[in-house]
Amino acid sequence: MESKMVPKIPREDKRPERPVLKCHKCGSTSHLANTCTKKTKINEIQVIEGIQCTEEKEESDEDSAVSEDTPVEDYPIENITAKSRMVGDFKALNTYTVPDRYPIPRIQGTLTQLSKAKYITLMDSLKGFHKNILMAKAQRLLRVITQCGIYEYLRMPFGIKNAPSHYQRMMNTIFLTELSEGWLIIYIDDIIICSDSWSLHLETLSRVLHKAAEVNTKISLKKFNFGFQELKELGHVVSGLSLGIDKNKVAAVLLRPIPQNEKEMMSFIGFSSYYRQHLKDFAILAKSLYRICDQQTIFEMTQEKIKAYEKINKALTEAPLLLIPDWNIPFKLYIDACGDGLGEALHQVQIIDDKPTEVTVCYISRQIKPTEARWSAYVWYGHLRNYTIILMAVFLK
Question: Superkingdom of the source (predicted)?
């Protein structure tokens, strides 16, 4: 039998193109930074911050976090107000770093788990990133310029692209057993213990502290919040009964002037959207603000947009407490719809002070897409759980 040779069809190379390497100092593609003649500028540092920078370096030397070195590749230092700490400006390095996609816990899931607990303890890992030793070839890429001289990191610093993902993976591996039991939450360097009883809380706390001691993880005493029934975390006030907005976070934003450009407006919208489950019809209120952030639109704060901005500010200051849902009793789902968006409010009738009281569980809203605006009326229905649906829009009745 004759064997027929089938010509091999070359497959299309679908691999992404490699980024063009260029010097991060001058932007040229003809050479890299180690041969560039342009000098790296040192950021201006006040004298008092320079002293704190020296103290930070001395504290880091205890764990051999940094060492003085002659640079081949170097980056300037960025300073953070309130508490000075050494953070390298690694933007150029992060551009060419392959991202680590290890998942960070969702904030909403963390808050939901926290809100079910009667007792909460919050601990912060002290200088946790500096517990990770760097390889020699990585140290050469992490040299920084300070007012005190030129240093290279020997341990994982702040500011590099994959540091949070790497640290989250390490903590999840260390506390794998405790995480699987459902009473422990780890959000990067925050360790949170949730319990329904005081005796159980003391037992679980002891387990976590012993495990931390075994792996030489230090806990910050300044950020140790032990056995609270109400705690501020992730911009919220969390207790075993309700979930509220941290008013201090809101007040700091409301003191700012009206946004004057697209970047400031996007920052305000992003902050407000973080609390959207507390804000009724947030998507509808913010629709006009989203529009002026479009790149094809000239940024202009008209009276309509200023009014929308003020309404969101008022909603943030008057946002209600969201009570924790009781999954054993029915829900009430209020539904509203208009040409600008959809809005829903999830309520329950719970017993508070021996009286049946209707409380808010959460608000949900989103904008109407251009295609959806041409659709006919919706038919709403509830399934899987027992809902009482209250229709607000006339055309849905």
Answer: Eukaryota
